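Form 7-S
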Amino acid sequence: MASEGATSGGSLEDRISKPTEAKPDEDQAKASFTDGASETLNGSKLQEPEYDVEVKLSDLQADPNNPLYSVKSFDELGLDPRIVQGIVALGFRKPSKIQERALPLLMANPPTNMIGQSQSGTGKTAAFVLNILSRLKLDTPEDQKTPQALILAPSRELARQIGGVVKEIGRFLDGLEVAMAVPTEGKRPPRLEASVVVGTPGTVTDLLKKRIFIANKLKVLVLDEADNMLDQQGLGDQCIRVKGMLPKNIQLVLFSATFTPQIREYAAKFAPNANEISLKQEELTVEGIKQFYLDCADDKEKYNVLVKFYGLLTVGSSIIFVQTRQTAAEIERRMVAEGHTVASLTGGVEGSKRDQVIDDFREGRAKVLITTNVLSRGIDVSTVSMVINYDIPELHTPGQGRKADPQTYLHRIGRTGRFGRVGVAVSFVSSREEWQMLMDISKYFDTHIEALQTDDWDELEKKIKKTIKNPRSRADYTSTAQ
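Output:
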């Protein structure tokens, strides 16, 4: 099976300009009424901040005064009543700000490409799912078994989560089938038979090549966390390869919380003549999450402090982010040996075991999860009250020394402090170099990261517990709109 990170030659820009030519697993993931799991699986409810949405139309003649340029209710979109029933059942009473602007553009005919930039928790997943469901033809058993839409995500966990969203919003649509195209230990069916396919790029490439996935009737391709998908060379190659095996007139939809200028250029080549919709850049901040750092003498002290943190980590649920699989495995081994209950999930864990780990974490059977950046994006578990950056996220640029990665920091700490809830992020630094990287991140987002003193541990615990337990005021999560 194709690796999710295989690489090929040539620059990403060249490969985007010149693309190459080529029964699902049962998914236990439940739905979302925001960007993640359902309320029963501890997904977070949509309580969006106030913000302005910028729209850049590919057609300069487009009329902003058209009544469908922006909508205030789902009824205005002319959706199938069964789809409206599904979205309302998940807690949406009216479109979010992003949905108000995105949905009329996404659902217009003839279909137009879209590049969307929107924070997690603002309803972007529901937006592209509504577009997909509105375009499905489910009249006959043959229609129901024919893939008509494909959603690509960078990780197995996010793909399963999105699959749950599709199932729940479309729960009243007779004949809707959702197939998961993620790595599996079992034997593949001879044919992927479902109207919507959600998967990871490497597995989808493999299934297309083997003709298990027949794509000639596809109408929509969505890339979620698109900046990550196009920025990582292996994933970017595979996304381009997948696109080259799909119908030429397919609607291309790219969504992410962040886009660097360079990746936005690449995205524009991947999805030409796209409408663009985004939050204003100054609103993509880390406000609303209380950020701290701890100065540790060395790696040994980092681990000792982490062990002392265990009582705080289990106040709610917590995620510990590390740089490598080896570090994750070592921390898990040592903490378990000392009698602490922790779980670990990295790219090295395969298939059903990964599903079990994330499901245990969602449902509260595991309170502390150690992971690499594989879970830094998109995963929505509302009980997460703390994120630990055991290692500062850094960019890998050969020959340029260690450099901070602000975007990954933003995505990591965004796993806590879901809208309306308090979140705490604590970063460990054990060298001058790591401290400088964290200060660079602080400067990048123009935000304050407060030092925690370890000379009085009782006072430190009291401070963090008080932060976690205080309900966030509306001012905290609307401050960026002022």
